[in-house]
């Protein structure tokens, strides 16, 4: 039953292969391919502003997937993801500026360096769980942030650092239209890697650690190894995402990688759905469009009594900040499984359409 | 050397405040097993409320302060009932994220309502500084030390002798047993949030009087983590000891830094290095109960 176009009713899976397949039907695979092709055509008809939003979704989505592997699949908590994201950004720029490593190579190398840092902070993480880990990563966030401000040789200190645009064989990816393809390719590759990771023995071990770590340990899963590994993988994704961010903006500033940014990453995966790969992307898109939505809402009520009473125009920054917190709380209270769950329900509804019960 | 002693005294005073905030943090954790990342925002809200009452309404301090406390009491109960009660039984990440979300919302709301710049309290004491054993110490600090000790003693009495305190301890020990003895666990949860918010507000007002009120106050809520981890997450005494140690430690680190090292920013960051070190060596802190797990 390898090439069916619709799912038969009932569960007829007879092998692990069919159970863990990425696309259960040819239709779903074709739709995924169609989606990527549509995205490939985006620069042709989209204006620069929308394109820049899509690029943001791309590199943030990569980093958020790393966090989802750590939080959603392994059940560890990290409140320091933006610090790793920032480390990747600085590392890539530093490798390129200081050592002359070509950018195309500096981006994956930055991922590897960030993995190293992630593993350093993963050592206490391997012994800790739950809220202790949350607090440890909180400390990591502040320590790394302090390091960014301190290490002039690495980050350029308070002045920030310049990152050269990505150049391959003399072709510079320095405009939004061109860079879009870089991010798209990176994102597709990283998401396929992530999806496949979860289908392997190691991926299943991570899920086992999340579901019941005592049982997992009794079954012979090395907890320390997998917790540390998960931290490393998450840092790798964050590093890649950060490096892509650096070469997109071509300037990295120390102040960007605050705890609020880390919380936004957590917000993305909670909104998207913990332990869901497609959900990560949905959550990232939601988080990127949220400020735009706030802007639009503000524009809609501008001039009315609400606008003058709250002085919205000057306080739009606070409104955006608040909306992040409010959205996280609302999702946790009303839809703890995130957008991925909602999407599944919508699909199920249409599948059985007139007779949904 | 005078500088060193000055910093030591400052450290003890600030540490006592950390201890108070850490205590109110531990109170929530003990009662309802919720790690409150919005503890710093309680300080912020309390301080702004008091500031607003004192400046906009021109209330005298002896009237404005109790009103602030009553407001925080109600605020704590409402917060628990509306936001935290639906989270009972949810996984730990959800609960942590809800409190983090709350902290973002409150911080942004406070900035929105009162602006981003620090605003000074109207003067409360006739003499801004006073002489303690030859050291110049701000009067507010001395008073705050007194208040801190008073609160700590109050907590000690409350949990040892008062009916409500005993009920809260019983709830923390075992919710089912407490319930079967006729204690309303719901009320205890709400009470723990209310008391915690109130006590934090006292600390918030104290710090606000010294440094002016600004969103920097909420950083106290972050500094609390090294203190509670050092003392043990579920130990009230540990919170006090941890707070004092962290307060002294950051001032000593600042002293070492300014005298010899010149690394800068050690005051802010030293507690976090200590935090990581403690988590590596003794994750349950000095006084915390060890988690022993059985299959």
TrEMBL record, chain A:
<feature type="transmembrane region" description="Helical">
    <location>
        <begin position="99"/>
        <end position="123"/>
    </location>
</feature>
<feature type="transmembrane region" description="Helical">
    <location>
        <begin position="261"/>
        <end position="290"/>
    </location>
</feature>
<dbReference type="GO" id="GO:0015658">
    <property type="term" value="F:branched-chain amino acid transmembrane transporter activity"/>
</dbReference>
<feature type="transmembrane region" description="Helical">
    <location>
        <begin position="130"/>
        <end position="148"/>
    </location>
</feature>
<keyword id="KW-0812">Transmembrane</keyword>
<feature type="transmembrane region" description="Helical">
    <location>
        <begin position="31"/>
        <end position="50"/>
    </location>
</feature>
<protein>
    <submittedName>
        <fullName>Branched-chain amino acid ABC transporter permease</fullName>
    </submittedName>
</protein>
<feature type="transmembrane region" description="Helical">
    <location>
        <begin position="229"/>
        <end position="249"/>
    </location>
</feature>
<feature type="transmembrane region" description="Helical">
    <location>
        <begin position="179"/>
        <end position="198"/>
    </location>
</feature>
<keyword id="KW-1003">Cell membrane</keyword>
<dbReference type="Pfam" id="PF02653">
    <property type="entry name" value="BPD_transp_2"/>
</dbReference>
<dbReference type="GO" id="GO:0005886">
    <property type="term" value="C:plasma membrane"/>
</dbReference>
<feature type="transmembrane region" description="Helical">
    <location>
        <begin position="317"/>
        <end position="334"/>
    </location>
</feature>
<keyword id="KW-0472">Membrane</keyword>
<dbReference type="InterPro" id="IPR043428">
    <property type="entry name" value="LivM-like"/>
</dbReference>
<keyword id="KW-1133">Transmembrane helix</keyword>
<feature type="transmembrane region" description="Helical">
    <location>
        <begin position="57"/>
        <end position="79"/>
    </location>
</feature>
<dbReference type="InterPro" id="IPR001851">
    <property type="entry name" value="ABC_transp_permease"/>
</dbReference>
Automatic annotation (TrEMBL), chain B:
<dbReference type="GO" id="GO:0022857">
    <property type="term" value="F:transmembrane transporter activity"/>
</dbReference>
<dbReference type="Pfam" id="PF02653">
    <property type="entry name" value="BPD_transp_2"/>
</dbReference>
<feature type="transmembrane region" description="Helical">
    <location>
        <begin position="269"/>
        <end position="287"/>
    </location>
</feature>
<dbReference type="InterPro" id="IPR052157">
    <property type="entry name" value="BCAA_transport_permease"/>
</dbReference>
<protein>
    <submittedName>
        <fullName>Branched-chain amino acid ABC transporter permease</fullName>
    </submittedName>
</protein>
<keyword id="KW-0813">Transport</keyword>
<feature type="transmembrane region" description="Helical">
    <location>
        <begin position="225"/>
        <end position="249"/>
    </location>
</feature>
<dbReference type="GO" id="GO:0005886">
    <property type="term" value="C:plasma membrane"/>
</dbReference>
<dbReference type="GO" id="GO:0006865">
    <property type="term" value="P:amino acid transport"/>
</dbReference>
<feature type="transmembrane region" description="Helical">
    <location>
        <begin position="7"/>
        <end position="28"/>
    </location>
</feature>
<keyword id="KW-1003">Cell membrane</keyword>
<keyword id="KW-0029">Amino-acid transport</keyword>
<feature type="transmembrane region" description="Helical">
    <location>
        <begin position="139"/>
        <end position="159"/>
    </location>
</feature>
<comment type="similarity">
    <text>Belongs to the binding-protein-dependent transport system permease family. LivHM subfamily.</text>
</comment>
<keyword id="KW-0472">Membrane</keyword>
<dbReference type="InterPro" id="IPR001851">
    <property type="entry name" value="ABC_transp_permease"/>
</dbReference>
<keyword id="KW-0812">Transmembrane</keyword>
<feature type="transmembrane region" description="Helical">
    <location>
        <begin position="95"/>
        <end position="118"/>
    </location>
</feature>
<feature type="transmembrane region" description="Helical">
    <location>
        <begin position="190"/>
        <end position="213"/>
    </location>
</feature>
<keyword id="KW-1133">Transmembrane helix</keyword>
<feature type="transmembrane region" description="Helical">
    <location>
        <begin position="61"/>
        <end position="83"/>
    </location>
</feature>
């Amino acid at each position: 039953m390898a090439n069916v176009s619709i799912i038969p009713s009932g569960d007829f899976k007879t092998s692990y292969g069919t159970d863990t397949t990425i696309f259960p039907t040819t239709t779903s695979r074709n739709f995924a391919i169609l989606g990527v092709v549509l995205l490939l055509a985006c620069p042709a008809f989209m204006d620069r502003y929308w394109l820049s939003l899509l690029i943001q979704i791309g590199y943030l989505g990569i980093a958020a997937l790393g966090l989802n592997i750590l939080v959603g699949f392994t059940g560890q908590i990290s409140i320091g993801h933006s610090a790793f994201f920032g480390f990747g950004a600085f590392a890539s720029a530093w490798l390129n500026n200081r050592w002359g490593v070509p950018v195309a190579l500096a981006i994956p190398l930055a991922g590897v360096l960030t993995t190293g840092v992630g593993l350093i902070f993963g050592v206490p993480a391997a012994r800790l769980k739950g809220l202790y880990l949350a607090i440890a990563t909180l400390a990591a966030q502040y320590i790394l942030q302090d390091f960014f401000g301190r290490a002039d040789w690495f980050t350029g200190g308070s002045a920030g650092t310049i990152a050269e645009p990505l150049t391959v064989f003399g072709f510079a990816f320095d405009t939004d239209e061109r860079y879009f393809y870089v991010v798209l390719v990176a994102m597709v590759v990283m998401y396929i890697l992530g999806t496949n990771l979860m289908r392997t023995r190691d991926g299943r071990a991570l899920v086992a650690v999340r579901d019941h770590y005592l049982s997992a340990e009794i079954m012979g899963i090395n907890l320390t190894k997998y917790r540390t590994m998960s931290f490393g993988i998450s840092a790798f994704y964050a590093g890649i995402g950060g490096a892509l961010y650096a070469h997109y903006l071509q300037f990295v500033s120390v102040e960007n990688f605050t705890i609020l940014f880390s919380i936004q990453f957590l917000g993305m995966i909670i909104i998207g759905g913990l332990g869901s790969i497609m959900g990560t992307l949905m959550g990232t898109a939601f988080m990127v469009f949220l400020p735009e939505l706030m802007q639009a809402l503000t524009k809609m009520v501008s001039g009315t009594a609400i606008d003058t009473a709250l002085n919205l125009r000057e306080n739009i920054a606070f409104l955006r900040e608040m909306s992040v917190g409010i959205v996280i709380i609302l999702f946790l209270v009303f839809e703890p499984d995130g957008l991925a769950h909602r999407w599944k329900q919508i699909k199920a509804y249409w599948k059985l359409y007139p007779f949904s019960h | 050397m005078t500088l060193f002693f000055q910093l030591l005294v400052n450290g003890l005073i600030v540490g006592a405040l950390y201890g108070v905030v850490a205590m109110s943090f531990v109170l929530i954790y003990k009662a309802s097993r919720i790690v409150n990342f919005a503890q710093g925002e309680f300080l912020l809200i309390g301080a702004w409320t008091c500031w607003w009452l004192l400046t906009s309404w021109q209330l005298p301090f002896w009237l404005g302060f109790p009103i602030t406390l009553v407001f925080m009491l109600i605020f704590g109960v409402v917060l628990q009932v509306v936001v935290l009660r639906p989270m009972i039984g949810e996984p730990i990440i959800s609960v942590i994220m809800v409190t983090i979300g709350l902290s973002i919302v409150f911080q942004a709301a406070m900035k929105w309502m009162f602006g981003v710049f620090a605003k000074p309290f109207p003067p409360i004491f006739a003499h801004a500084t006073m002489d303690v054993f030859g050291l110049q110490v701000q009067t507010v600090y001395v008073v705050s030390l007194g208040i801190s000790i008073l609160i700590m003693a109050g907590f000690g009495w409350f949990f040892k002798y008062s009916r409500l305190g005993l009920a809260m301890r019983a709830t923390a020990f075992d919710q089912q047993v407490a319930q079967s003895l006729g204690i309303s666990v719901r009320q205890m949860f709400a009470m723990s949030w209310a008391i915690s918010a109130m006590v934090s507000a006292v600390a918030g007002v104290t710090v606000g009087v010294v440094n002016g009120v600004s969103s920097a106050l909420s950083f106290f809520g972050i500094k609390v983590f090294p203190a509670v981890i050092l003392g043990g997450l579920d130990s009230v005494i540990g919170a006090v000891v941890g707070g004092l140690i962290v307060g002294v430690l950051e001032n000593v680190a600042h002293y070492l830094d300014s005298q010899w090292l010149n690394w800068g920013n050690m005051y802010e960051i030293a507690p976090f290095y200590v935090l990581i070190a403690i988590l590596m060596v003794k994750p349950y802190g000095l006084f915390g109960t060890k988690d022993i797990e059985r299959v």
